[in-house]
Write a structure and sequence with these properties.
- With about 240 residues, this protein is of the alpha/beta class.
- The chain has one domain: Rossmann fold, CATH 3.40.50.150.
- It has seven helices and eleven strands.
- The protein has a seven-stranded mixed sheet.
- It is globular.
Length: about 240
């Protein structure tokens, strides 16, 4: 039922990439990533990750030669959705786990070959939260971007590491906003319903901010599940 494709001991715990066949879905092949006892992601549910990119690009409609950042590579769904747009000139993907970048470069995950072959896409092993405070592109200090798409923590108040907390406070959000181009967009994925306190904080740091619910079918429950995408923009 399960095939372990990679196992790594990391400072955050045991990182496992596995592939399994799901009999309840006609034998569909599913890729999953676990960190310790936590499920980080599954190829079964990618709608929220893809919406993270598409909603940000919708907010930038009419503009071209766009430079984007993705925080958190994962299985690559956000990055791949961003690269579907011909308006995207460059995509910098920042991933904390070196093994995850390696999975894509080795083609161990379904979207790995696609992302690795796209000349617009540059994947680096680094700490997004450190770079968000210091400068997102280590090779080009002071560079600003049209959109930053973030999918690392489960929610703004449900973090993978306590050290991420400062980013979601006023100072961290303001530091990120300064790295956006005029009219630029910050898009954040969350596995929880919209948090009015966090949304209000976004609105105080950006010119405008909103939360969108992204619904998708759940084949296990026969109903729907939902993620939240926060969208915030700076002034033009």
């Amino acid at each position: 039922m399960f095939e372990e494709l990679d196992y790594q001991q990391t400072p955050m715990g045991e990182l496992v990439l596995r592939r399994r066949s799901e009999p309840r879905l006609g034998g569909r092949e599913i890729y999953e990533v676990k960190l310790g006892d936590e499920f980080l992601m599954s190829s079964l549910f990618s709608e929220g990750e893809e919406a993270l990119a598409r909603l940000a690009l919708d907010a930038l409609s009419g503009r071209d030669s766009l430079d984007l950042v993705v925080g958190g590579l994962g299985l690559g769904y956000t990055a791949a959705a961003a690269l579907e747009s011909a308006a995207v000139r460059s995509l910098l993907v920042i991933e904390y786990q070196a093994a995850v970048v390696d999975w894509h470069r080795r083609g161990l995950v379904p979207l790995g070959a696609t992302l690795s072959a796209d000349p617009r896409c540059r994947m680096i092993h680094d700490d997004f939260f450190r770079l968000a405070a210091e400068g997102l592109d280590p090779e080009h200090p002071g560079r600003r971007f049209h959109a930053v798409l973030l999918d690392i923590d489960h929610a703004p108040d449900h973090l993978l590491q306590p050290g991420h907390a400062a980013f979601y406070e006023t100072g961290g959000l303001q530091a990120l906003a300064r790295q956006l181009q005029p009219g630029g967009v910050f898009s954040l994925w969350s596995n929880a319903p919209a948090d009015p306190v966090f949304l209000q904080r976004l609105q105080s740091c950006f010119a405008a901010a909103e939360a969108r619910e992204v619904c998708f079918p759940n084949p296990y429950t026969g109903g729907e599940s939902a993620n939240t995408v926060y969208l915030a923009s700076v002034s033009r």
